[in-house]
Write a structure and sequence with these properties.
By secondary structure, the chain is mostly helical. It is built from 6 helices and no strands. The two termini are about 35 Å apart.
Length: about 150
């Protein structure tokens, strides 16, 4: 299942309209620099070979380099992991503290207004969070696609 997931994600990234070779050269892009970056990144290989190289690096723990921070992705993850875990624990604490009592109340007062309001809020907040994450993924610079 994980192998299928890596394949789907890899294929989705391979069809994106952005060119990583162009992104890595900054403002001084020339066709020669772009071509050199494509070769350095292995983007001049067929997609199936790129995927096999990706899997090989993944299995050896090489997650690649960040285009944004120009450092190994594994190092970035290690740096950000403590803050991520702290935020996760706080979120689980608050979600449990609010969700469990509201869930019990909804179960006890089934089909009443005290059931409908928390259900509506849960669905609305989940949908809003999903839309926000999709927006962040599509427009990471925050301009809303403008």
């Amino acid at each position: 299942m994980l192998l299928l997931l890596t394949l789907v994600v890899f294929l989705l990234f391979s069809v994106l309209p952005t060119d990583p070779a162009r992104l890595t050269c900054g403002k001084a892009c020339t066709p020669e620099i772009i071509e050199a970056n494509r070769h350095r990144l292995g983007l001049d290989l067929p997609v199936w070979q790129q995927y096999l190289q990706f899997l090989q690096r993944l299995l050896t723990g090489d997650l690649g380099r960040s285009f944004v921070f120009n450092m190994p992705v594994g190092t970035l993850i290690a740096q950000k992991l403590p803050a991520t875990l702290e935020l996760t624990l706080i979120a689980v604490f608050f979600a449990s503290g609010i969700g469990i009592p509201l869930g019990v109340l909804s179960a006890v007062k089934q089909y009443s207004l005290l059931d409908a309001i928390p259900t509506f809020l849960a669905i609305f907040l989940a949908a809003a969070a999903a839309v926000a994450r999709i927006g962040d993924a599509l427009w990471p610079d925050g301009d809303g696609g403008a």
